[in-house]
Amino acid sequence: MQIPRFWRQIPNRYNLIGVQCENCKKVYFPPRIVCPDCHRLSIGKMKQYKLSDKGVVHSYTVIYEPAEGFENQVPYIMAIIQLEDGPRITAQIVDCNPEEVKIGSRVEMVFRRLGEDGKAGIIYYGYKFALVKTQT
Amino acid sequence: MRDVAIIGIGMTKFGELWEKSFREIGIEAGLRAIEDAKISGDLLDALYVGNMSAGKLIEQEHVSSLILDYSGYSSKHLPAVRVEAASASGGVALYEAYLAVASGMYDFVMVGGAEKMTDVGDAEANRELCSTADNEWESIFGATYASLFAMLARRHMYEYGTTEEQMAHVAVKNHKFASKNPVAHFKNTLTVEQVLTSSPVATPIKTLDCAPVSDGAAAVVLCPWDHARKFCDTPIKIAGVGLATDTIALHSRRDICTMDAVVRASSKAYHMARIGPKEVNLAEVHDCYTIAEIVEIEDLRLVKKGEGGKATAEGQTDIGGKVVVNPSGGLKGRGQPPGAVGIAQVVEIVQQLRGEAKERQVPGANVGITLNIGGTGATAFVSILKREN
Q: Which residues pair with A92 in a beta bridge?
């Protein structure tokens, strides 16, 4: 990936920064330039918004045939996560066995390495998620 | 708007066509369609080409002019348009060509779809398929194309009780049809057991739940309905079309188990054709994964929402059932050259409606529907085709 292409989304991928439409208060992640509900009424009113890093697993899969660059992580868990603030996002779930993940499991964001551009290229960082351990 | 007919169809074999180039398969399908239409190519007013990724896969952009040139018509300087909408490229090309003929702008139009997947390795072909999802917010995190459908499948299982065995039945049925289709990528039949024990790709999706990546091309010739009988004994009418879109990322959909674009596109097509789902005898749907066929037949309202898996396992989508789904073998059995899929689906329905599908002929085929999707359902094209006696 080209450096600017990753660099310009660092705030979003490092800190779950999305946007909120000041017209209808709906929160979006990833950021959008216009609100799909308010359309032109939202122009200039989409403000940065730090999302809660907690959510639940909406669906998940365990990947055995990996995407390029993910070969050494197989098998790895991908999930669609329903965040507390409303949006759903796609991210890995780490630090657990696949059997521990269920639809409805509570998760929270962790900061991890996502990948790299070969041996000498830049390293990408961003969000993954981990199960919230219930206290016993 | 004028009524539009399909008067010619043609396609190549689907599969790993190592010996043929992109332009060769494109021309082969087009020539067959011209021959089938029994018209002179000199009559054509324009060419539309559906293609997903020639730029990446064969490092060749501008394929509209390329195909027209190698068809031998460069000296006529005809308009040629390439359409890209991921794996719905062929369907959307057909939609555009339909509009051009219906509007009266053109009389005779060739619409082709072509893709050459095997000039690159599997990794690159899969990366291309991944790029039809949201590259910056799905693929970068390690999501594969299969994994997105896997998450759709898992949620469908959770909400409706769909099972892996029901999904396997889709593959078994479609391979059975493909084994009778001379142009199919796969000729082998499968058992439910074989599908269930095949190696995991992205759970619950296994190797035999996935359509292959194939090379191939397909083409149709359109003309105004009022001219059609001059060229063809059994012209097939395009009775309805619908094109719709949705969020590019699966996670942003209203409901990840419902393809709202399919619901919308099919509603438009049914309305235009003045028919309902009950009148459809056969369907060609976009079974890139077995779960896709299950969700799509629900969203086309051919079966009740949530009952796609059950209906398939009960044989409701096989010969003798309520509606025959993917008699060509589908993407799963006939093969998946993304840009060609949408046109090949139409080729199959036309053969069936003409009564020329031989061993895989669906008895009493009068009304057929096609559904071609792009990505995980961010684009959906639906056509309803009718035989008019």
A: A78
For B249, which of A70, A90, A124 is closest by C-beta distance? A90
Q: Which domain holds residue B26?
A: 4-122+214-228
Do the chains contact at A61 and B203, CB–CB below 8 Å?
yes
Residue B168 identity: A
| A123: β partners | A116
* pLDDT tens string B111-147: 999 999 999 988 888 888 888 999 999 999 999 999 9
Tell me the residues of chain A between 16 and 75 that have a Cβ less than 8 Å away from chain B.
30, 58-70, 73, 75
**Best mutation site among A90, A101, A103 for testing chain B: the one with the most B CBs within 10 Å?**
A90
pTM value is: 0.97
Domain that residue A40 falls in? 17-50
Angle at B241 between CA B240 and CA B247, to 5 degrees: 145
> Which of A65, A76, A94, A103 should we substitute to test contact with B (largest number of B Cβ atoms within 10 Å)?
A65
Kindly indicate whether the ipTM for this predicted assembly is greater than 0.90, answering yes or no: yes
**CA B96 to the chain's CA centroid:** 16
